[in-house]
Design brief:
The chain is α/β, with parallel strands linked by helices. 36% of the residues lie in helices and 19% in strands. Strand 2 and strand 3 (58-63) form a beta hairpin.
């Protein structure tokens, strides 16, 4: 089924890409590319130098040479809406992609202070946490900070709930996570028994969701339960530490039978913050509110008199763990911002030097040309 430029905007509601998130807003953004004869496509997978995109005519393989800039945050990503060459080109290229509504970004584990985009145009950031191992509330807060910063709505899914035999214990675990995630929905699910899967599927039925978590969190099993098929390979989890074997190696976007689309990601060994000050503030909203009542506007909440945050710790309404986690994430975020700014300043200086060298070379060549004519 193909659409002509003339009928494109009027027919956007009936477009075959609607199950993949297409709407009137994307249709309006894409209108200039329709006039160029390009096709809209949702990127479902990215490989080196190429990507798969689902279009009105099916899934196409396209070269990404035109959308692979030096900046790693601007490379095309799973979830992007792409402008793809029409049928006939060999190879076919992605010529451009639409401005992103949201983007989930983490810092890389390298020393280059670069960000890595994991998923684009996401409505829900599902943070999968296994109940087969001891809860790490600090890690959950870290994922939440990135989730809020992305512009998506975070959602915590406690997987493998069937392994917790006592309902009272399960209730306490859910409550513990809720204290670390104010304003965030927390669901306990079991892909093995189906507990909670139907509720989760209903929540995710409208929009795009990205499934995040460390290896062994049960993401692939949960993805299969939501997709209604064994789409993702699942391997046994190590009993020693609950870690999986990284069965998902790429980010894939798939349509769910009940509506909505799901992006599954590989298990993340490290989740570094990337310019996530707003996200950190959202995760620790109660501390941010307390800070407004401190005597000094620049209170560091360490030993200052009249500190409302320390007062809450003293009266037991704020846990020491929460405050320490808040401080840790803020320090980390400040470090990555400082390193990034230093890197950008270095790149600008190198660019100035390069342009200066080119300018001097051009002037010398020009002078040499004049002197040659004089002789």
């Amino acid at each position: 089924m193909s659409f002509s430029p003339a009928s494109f905007e009027a027919s956007s509601a009936a477009h075959p890409l609607v199950p993949y998130g297409w709407d009137d807003g994307w249709a309006a953004e894409f209108a200039p590319y329709v006039r160029q004869g390009l096709l809209p496509g949702r990127v479902v997978r990215v490989d080196r130098g190429q990507c798969d995109a689902v279009t009105a005519d099916g899934v196409v393989r396209a070269d990404t040479a035109f959308v692979t800039p030096h900046d790693p945050l601007r490379v095309i990503c799973t979830g992007d809406w792409a402008a793809v060459d029409p049928v006939g080109g060999d190879p076919r290229f992605v010529r451009e992609y639409l401005p992103r509504r949201t983007a989930f970004v983490r810092s890389t584990s390298s020393l280059r202070s670069e960000g890595q985009i994991l998923a684009a145009n996401v409505d829900h950031a599902i943070i999968a946490v296994s109940l087969a191992v001891e809860l790490d509330l600090g890690r959950i807060e870290r994922f939440l900070a990135l989730g809020w910063e992305s512009g998506a709505l975070p959602l915590i899914v406690l997987t493998k709930a069937d392994l917790v035999g006592d309902p009272a214990v399960l209730g306490h675990l859910v409550d513990d996570v809720r204290t670390a995630a104010p304003g965030v929905q927390v669901l306990a699910v079991s892909a093995a028994t189906g507990e909670g899967v139907e509720v989760l599927s209903a929540v995710l039925s409208a929009g795009t969701s990205v499934l995040l978590g460390v290896s062994g969190a049960g993401k692939s099993t949960l993805a299969n339960a939501l997709l209604g098929d064994d789409v993702m390979d699942v391997q046994a989890t190590r009993e020693v530490d609950g870690k999986g074997r990284h069965t998902t190696t790429t980010r894939n976007l798939l349509a769910m039978p009940g509506g909505g689309v799901l992006i599954d990601t590989p298990g993340l060994r490290g989740v570094g913050l990337w310019d996530a000050e707003t996200g950190v503030g959202q995760v620790f909203s109660e501390i941010e509110e307390l800070a407004k009542r401190c005597r000094f506007h620049d209170c560091a909440h360490v030993s200052e008199p009249g500190c409302a945050v320390l007062g809450a710790v003293e009266d037991g309404s704020l846990s020491v763990r929460r405050l320490e986690s808040y401080r840790k994430l803020l320090r980390e975020n400040q470090r990555i911002i400082a390193k990034t700014d230093a890197r950008l300043r270095g790149e600008i200086r190198r660019e100035w030097k390069r342009k200066g060298a080119e300018g001097r070379a051009a002037m010398e060549a020009k002078r040499g040309g004049r002197s040659g004519r004089t002789r």
